[in-house]
Batch of 4 targets.
Target 1
Amino acid sequence: MSSSSMKKEIYWLVGTLILVIVLHFFHFGGEGFQPGTQFDVEVFDTYFAMSSLYFLWPFAVSCFFLVYLVKVIATAFSSGPANLVLMITSIFLLLFTTRGSLIMAGVLQGQVLVDFATAMVVIQLVLSVLLAYTAFRTGNLKKYGW
């Protein structure tokens, strides 16, 4: 990998990180980066109060996933570092959907729970297939000198 292409990947990483920080700032304001700042999420009759910094990590992973998914598809899976970032964010999203399913199972009931569980399984299946395909394409890049 040449020095210019490595610089380009670093610019993509830094640009995506700046995007995450700016979007978090616009959503929560300057106080959103303080550990004591909280926001409420209402799911039916249940309120979740959480620190805005706890929201930042899944939000950042989701932003990185979306940006790099578009980039990897646009470059036809030919960039090894971009494929790697996409695979890492896919793994984190799989972990988040698993954890979210466990949390929401205690809140939801009846058909809503069944629909939510079905949606999570479909999302996990799509992420797993994307992860496997990206790993396969990245492995083929190694054969040709990535």
Note: The chain has a mean pLDDT of 87.
Target 2
Amino acid sequence: MPHAFVIRPFGIKKDREGNEVNFDRVYEKMIRPALEEVQFSGGSMGEIKVAGNIREDMFRLIFSADLVICDLSIHNANVFYELGIRHALRRNRTILLRDESLSDEIPFDLQTDRYFTYNAQKPGNFKEKLTEIIQATLKSDRQWDSPVFAALAGLQEPALESQAPAEFRNEVERAQAARLKGWLRLLSEEVRMREFSWAGLRLVAKAQFHLKDFKGSRKSWEEVRKYYPADIESNLHLASIYERLFRRGPRKALFKLTRKAAKAPEAMDIPEMIRPEDRGLFELSNQAIENVLRNLMATIQELTEALTLKGRNYKTRWRLEFEHLDPLEVRRRKAANRSLKETYEAYRDA
């Protein structure tokens, strides 16, 4: 389940002219219902009841949250501090709120940002609109809303896996070392309800990929990409997984069948014999590759990997056209076609 963190003042506070706002009421009547509407867990620091260093919990939650909602209606040092941390660590998915009726001015450095405005006297009236804003933010392909990442080209977010507790990382490592695919699949399901779910899922998905449990890894990576559609790492892994599932599954079985049963193999159009659902895997792989190639935040290394995967897909399609043929001379003649040229060009681009 995706997790949200709310940065806000607590209790009843006043602006510089003495106007009072009950921020707890704003949270209960507007923010919490909107988050529940989009099925987000989490809340604000006031809801943390576990023992330990509350500042460490705050840092971890601000960093790991899939969405942060920050209320800047009044001048509050803690709110500014926590928002600064979020802007420094995460490039996007931060929503700013303010009560339009209050007199405190937005600080100069934040004046150009977009705000969702509401009236604290009737916060429940703005729940539906906030829900729409949250949904739009989650679907947006906007690369950043953090002024830090917007200003500093090339700045990278810290690895999300770093937020997973050491004991969970150790358990994933033990499962991988023991080559226990079932254990990893169980961890993949269990971690989804934890506040470090996406970090944990990434760790599990990588371990599953390493063990060649491509079906399990596919499920884990797809869950991550469900809430991070533009995530480069997810798309690169899924591009490879879809192609491997296609190549090692129905394609391999089909070649085995046709080699045994076909009386006139040259007359068979093997690509047309592939089941639509299996052909869909190939298209999903191509789509994942294009997601990376269109991503303005992709590094040279990531773009190179995407182009290499594109070349491999072309090669898979090319080999599909002649691998089933006998004898060798027939395969050689059939292999020299347009698909070979396209495969070469794709690898050349990489």
Note: The radius of gyration is 26 Å.
Target 3
Amino acid sequence: MTKSKNKTPNAFSKISKWASDFIKMDKTRSAGRKIASSLWALFFGMLLAYIYIAISKGVGKSIFVNPFAIFKAIGQSFNSLNQETILKYFLVFGFSAIACALSFKAGLFNIGIPGQMMVTGIVSFSIFIKFRYNNEAPIPVHVLLISLIFSIAVAFIVGLISGTLKAYLNVHEVISTIMLNWIIVGFATLLFKQTSAPVIWNGLSPEQIKYYFADNLDGVVPGFVTISKSARQGFVIAGIIGLFVLAFSIAFVFNYTSLGYKIRMQGISKSNGKYIGVNDKRITMFVLATSAAIAGLAGFYYYVAVSTPVFSEISQPLTLGFEAIAISLLALNSPIGSLFSSLFYTAIYTSNSNLQLDPLYFEPYDIQVITSIILYMAATSIMFVNFQPINYFKRKSKLWSDKRYFANKELEKLKRKKINLITKYKNKVHHLQINANAKNYEKSIQKLKHLQELFAKKLNKVNLSITKAKLKSEQANKLFELEFQLHIAKKNKNQEEITKIKNDIKNHHLFTKKILNKEITTDFIDEEIKEKITLNKEENSQKVQIKLLRKELASLTDKHLSFAMNYKNTDDETIEYFEKINQEKNRINTQLNLLGVATKFNNKQQRKAAIKNNSFEFKKIYQHIILERTEMKKYAKGGQK
């Protein structure tokens, strides 16, 4: 008999599938459910964040934090003085989240958003320094447009490199994008440091080098170039329009074009995509390159299109870029949803200073923890896809107001109890059968007799309870019919009919009480009681025989396998030995099954199937009750039956 299979690979595959579905979140749910799940994730995230603050401030400093004061502080970040900052981060988070969502839809994890955003800083500020721009005059709009176009193009190439590595060399996109992040950081530190500037920028004078670069900073000197207010406003307006157009365009592509269908199929399953004719290499390269280009656009609004253009803190990948992952997951990878999740995160991100003022006085680390909690819950919003508390309590209220529910619930529990009782009895009988031998035969017979008597007694008791529960269910059904008739009579304002039905209901209650108090008998005999059971009289018990057969199987397998592995054998002789091994396995496995080696497992599977069928049967009954209660309520309001 073969050993039980290792369950670890199966468990790992389930976890892997769940994680894959979590990242892709393709069109398996309605838009309404996706929105609801995101809102629930935000609610629980904010609730947990407030619990943390209440404990942190209440226990540590004996301060009560008013939750409405927190919302007020966040709302104050949307004042006119903070308008430019709000728009900046909304555009940055919006473009980067859409870039992330695009790759996730194709089943690709673009972790290179930070580096791809930094590409814009490298390209744009290289152009500004190359053409010797300074803060004496604003940078011309056409130069800004050129830097934007070149930045997007270079970011596209960076994404294309990662896509090519994935498509043709099977290098995982997470590895390649992380490596590219640090390569970009390396380029940035090489280009924008005062120590390396004389070599890289050999056309600059020492004064210009000091003007553009400073050793005490990672990157360029803040404010060495300026952008006119009108140019900034123009880019912001164009960015907002472009962001909305991009979001709706990508949503349209995903839902209504063959390209979008191919991308989604690629995300769901690579093999399925191939079957429908998807060129997975081309799609992979296109998606990662396009995602990088959009991330480059986000970088432009972070580094360049601001009141003080600056490219600093370049010794590591831009940490802000990683926020795009959580923002995208909060929107369940919906391009349009990313607009709302970006706005929400912008509100939190830009309210840091307000939260540190009177009356809250939050510490910077408190704000980091709060943000992390909210983002963590937001990233797990998929867990709330089936979370419908209002619908749950509405359904439960309809069931709790109906006596049929309680009658059927009792019947369901009793049937489950019967299933468990039968399984327990079968396992005990199997234990006696497998251990019985010539020596303990008489004792085993006595145990079996006692077990059968006890089982028959318990089973009869359960059967009587089931019969009584069925009567309750039947009477509850009749009561509902009377209640429905009463609703009709009340709707028609027929007083005579109302009085008659009320009397019928009263009589029904008395009759139900009478028949339930009456002694109930049942002539039903279960198959388990009728079944004739025999015990082993041989010297060796079935348990011992099973052990001997397994040893025999192992011995025969080793014997024939050693012959089969002899290098002097011909191919036909090797095949013959393996056929002998197979024949012996079949013979011994047949004997093992006759001895009951799989009986306990079969009993367990039968119990599972019976409980599942029982649960499914009553689930349909409960759904029918809810439907009838809903129809009755509609009729009472003026509907038609």
Note: Residues 192 and 439 are 92 Å apart (CA to CA).
Target 4
Amino acid sequence: AVHIGLLFLVAKIIKAPIFYVAVGSKANIGGAASAPVVASAFHPALAPVGVLLAVLGYALGTYMAWLCGQLLRIIGN
């Protein structure tokens, strides 16, 4: 419930279409395998957008996890 509420709140603030909210959520939870399925549910030509958002999520998530680890290492010392 928190995930959905936060997604809709941010989408409303930045005025993002529901398509990006749905695909972004699925890309975060399901990864690159399931994001194109949700994207193609809106329109079949949008499946590559789902793959792109999932890959972007992988890249950003990896960097942010590394950054979080570095921050915790600094705090721990």
Note: The chain has a mean pLDDT of 86.
